[in-house]
Amino acid sequence: MLSLHLPLAAETARIIDSAALARMKRGSILINTARGPLVDEKALLDALTNGQLGAAGLDVFCREPVGADDPLLKLPNVVVTPHLAWLTVETLERSLVVIAENCRRLRTGEALLHRVV
């Protein structure tokens, strides 16, 4: 089994491609709860339909929201969740701490934490 837990960056985009999937033990399981574009979805589809991969668990897709016509959704060996694997009590608590801190920073004119531009 391979479970992905890494950020999406130029060097990680499509890190799981046909070559990476071919190196995995036949019948392995791929779980992606990180970022959709880490996986070449065409290569994943091929590996799932030809038996190279036994199954996949996907919480993220290259295109979100995933289209109802996505061929991965039609496979019996694919389990999908609606991009919620990140939601735990701990992450919710951390998010609330950051929100409160950013409110304080807005009031005092300080730079925000984790600002995305």
Structural account:
The chain has two domains: 2-85, 3-Layer(aba) Sandwich (Rossmann fold); 87-117, no CATH class. 14% of the residues are buried. The protein has a four-stranded parallel β-sheet. With 117 residues, the chain is of the alpha/beta class. It has helices at residues 18-23, 41-49, 89-108; strands at residues 2-4, 28-32, 53-58, 78-80.
Compact description:
The chain has 117 residues and is α/β, with parallel strands linked by helices. It is 30% helix and 15% strand. The protein has three helices and four strands.
Any chance you could write out the topology, listing elements then pairs?
Blueprint lengths: L1 E3 L13 H6 L4 E5 L8 H9 L3 E6 L19 E3 L8 H20 L9
Parallel strand pairs: 1-2, 2-3, 3-4
Q: Keywords for this structure?
A:
single chain, 117 residues, alpha/beta, Rossmann fold, four-stranded parallel sheet, 3 helices, elongated
Q: Biggest sheet, in brief?
A: 4 strands, parallel
What is the chain-wise order of helices and strands? Answer: EHEHEEH
Unreliable stretches, pLDDT < 50, 5 or more residues? none
- The whole-number mean of residue pLDDT values reads 94
